[in-house]
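Anyone up for a design puzzle?
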C-alpha cells in the first residue's frame, strides 16, 4: 500500500480493516482528547467496533464515497483525516480530522488536509469542500483558516455530543477560490 510523507518521520496512508488493532490502540491513547469534540472514540470501544468502523468506511470508499486515512509518526498511528462525505455527482465533500495530543502542533493535519483538498479538486473535480467544526474547537478552526476556507455560518446547537448541544461552524472553499489561492 502507499504512504505519502508529511514530514521526515510522518506519513499519511489509507486506513483499512486490517489496521483495526492499531486503530483501537490509537483511540485508547487519545480517547478523551479526541472525544472532546467528535464522536469517533465513542464509536470505537473494542476490536469488533474498530473493525466495523474501518469496514464501513472501506465499503463507502468502494462506492466512491467517504474515505479514511491515518497519520503515523515514527510508525505509530497518531491521528487521521477523512472525507466524511464525498458526493462526486454533486461535486461536494466534507473533510475532517482528529489527532492525539502528542502529535499536535506539528502541522501534520494541515499538510494531510492539503493533500485531500488537492486530490478532491485536481483529480476528482470537486466544486466545494466543506469543514464542519464545533465552535469550541479552536485547533480545528485554525486548520480551516490555514487551508484558506471561509467561515460561512454557525448551526446553533445542532449537534448533541456527550449530552451537550454544540454549535457547528461551517467552513468551505470553492474550486475557483482554491485555484486562485494556489497561483504564484
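Challenge accepted. My sequence:
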Amino acid at each position: 500500500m502507499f504512504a505519502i510523507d508529511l514530514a521526515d518521520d510522518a506519513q499519511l496512508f489509507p486506513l483499512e480493516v486490517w489496521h483495526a488493532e492499531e486503530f483501537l490502540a490509537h483511540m485508547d491513547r487519545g480517547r478523551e482528547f479526541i472525544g472532546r469534540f467528535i464522536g469517533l472514540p465513542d464509536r470505537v470501544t473494542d476490536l469488533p467496533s474498530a473493525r466495523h468502523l474501518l469496514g464501513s468506511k472501506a465499503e463507502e470508499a468502494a462506492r466512491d464515497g467517504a474515505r479514511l486515512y491515518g497519520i503515523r509518526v515514527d510508525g505509530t498511528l497518531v491521528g487521521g483525516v477523512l472525507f466524511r462525505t464525498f458526493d462526486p455527482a454533486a461535486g461536494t465533500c466534507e473533510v475532517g480530522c482528529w489527532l492525539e495530543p502528542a502529535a499536535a502542533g506539528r502541522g501534520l493535519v494541515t499538510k494531510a488536509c492539503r493533500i485531500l483538498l488537492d486530490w478532491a479538486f485536481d483529480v476528482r473535480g470537486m466544486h466545494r469542500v466543506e469543514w464542519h467544526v464545533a465552535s469550541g474547537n479552536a485547533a480545528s478552526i485554525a486548520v480551516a483558516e490555514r487551508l484558506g476556507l471561509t467561515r460561512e455560518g454557525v448551526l446553533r446547537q445542532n449537534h448533541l455530543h456527550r449530552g451537550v448541544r454544540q454549535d457547528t461552524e461551517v467552513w468551505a472553499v470553492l474550486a475557483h477560490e482554491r485555484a486562485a489561492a494556489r497561483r504564484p
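A detail worth pointing out: Strands lie at 4-7, 10-14, 67-73, 76-87, 92-99, 128-134, 150-161, 164-174.
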